[in-house]
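Box 3.1. Reading complex inputs
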Amino acid sequence: MAHEHDHPAAAPAGSRYRRDNADLLQRLRRIEGQVRGVQRMVEEDRYCVDILVQLAAVRSALGAVGRSLLEDHVRGCVVDAVRHGDGERAVTEVLDVIAQFSRQ
Amino acid sequence: MAHEHDHPAAAPAGSRYRRDNADLLQRLRRIEGQVRGVQRMVEEDRYCVDILVQLAAVRSALGAVGRSLLEDHVRGCVVDAVRHGDGERAVTEVLDVIAQFSRQ
Amino acid sequence: MAHEHDHPAAAPAGSRYRRDNADLLQRLRRIEGQVRGVQRMVEEDRYCVDILVQLAAVRSALGAVGRSLLEDHVRGCVVDAVRHGDGERAVTEVLDVIAQFSRQ
Amino acid sequence: MAHEHDHPAAAPAGSRYRRDNADLLQRLRRIEGQVRGVQRMVEEDRYCVDILVQLAAVRSALGAVGRSLLEDHVRGCVVDAVRHGDGERAVTEVLDVIAQFSRQ
């Protein structure tokens, strides 16, 4: 199913920005660990409020990963698309995903 | 470190609400799976916007678990505390955690 | 259209909390002034980002008023309702409005 | 205090997008009216939950104006800046204001 979006992280020559997949993965693994930690709290029948505080922390960490990935995307793909005359679609797409994030 | 919050899910006699730990665990395991799915997307170098859409979905699922746990907590612990004359602390605590959630 | 909700701020005897309408009004008037300030910025054709920063400030102020009113409501009406055996409806109602706020 | 941001809505020749100030003003005036409506509810000592529902509506309307202005800004100023080689600053600035909005 090769389509033009399959490897967009392979930015066109001249782009200064590249997504840092290693950093993303590390943060996502930490978040996975946090989610398992919350599961343990539930299994140990811990106090609701303590669990809610942890859930808020995981949600905050996910939001931070999202903002970081959004930044990489704008600095890389969107800027490149605008420079190469394909900005319209890239801009519409990124505005949609920002609205999606902001509505939760 | 046994303190009074260690087993508050063991609600006092007469309480009609109990936290559904089995349901919470099932939802948290699904969220853990979603987080691993996002890791795979990063490893496969998938398109930023597709990853952002998945991150937004995970964040939404975490928010839903939080709201559900908050509801259990208010209907169970907070209502019981108010009835047994210890409402002041329970209410302050739950308002704090709501503010914490709403600021992200 | 007098119904039971028309004057609930007149809390039953014994309630320790009352909504501070004077404080609420002062904050809402300040917010009204901020909204008019944003209108002036638009009329003067000011820079989008400067306007966005002001809009974010107004939105933050509205959120703070909402959290404050929610706190008064929980400490006053909800606690009284729970004490007087009508907690079920009050709790469902407040959880609904919290969910409504958190989804934006 | 003339600086380069004083009239950025006057987009450079060739830009296809312009901010619709008339539409923005109309929406901001409606929001001002909503804020005054909430003040009246407080003056009439209306039920907290009814006021909270209105506050949530005003906050939602402000968020919608913010998203709309953000869209105009990205399609206009940011895209132009990228095309004219001044994208770096414009992109950093817009990412900052998005983060500011998303944290409330």
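In summary: Chain C touches chain D through 50 residues (CB under 8 Å).
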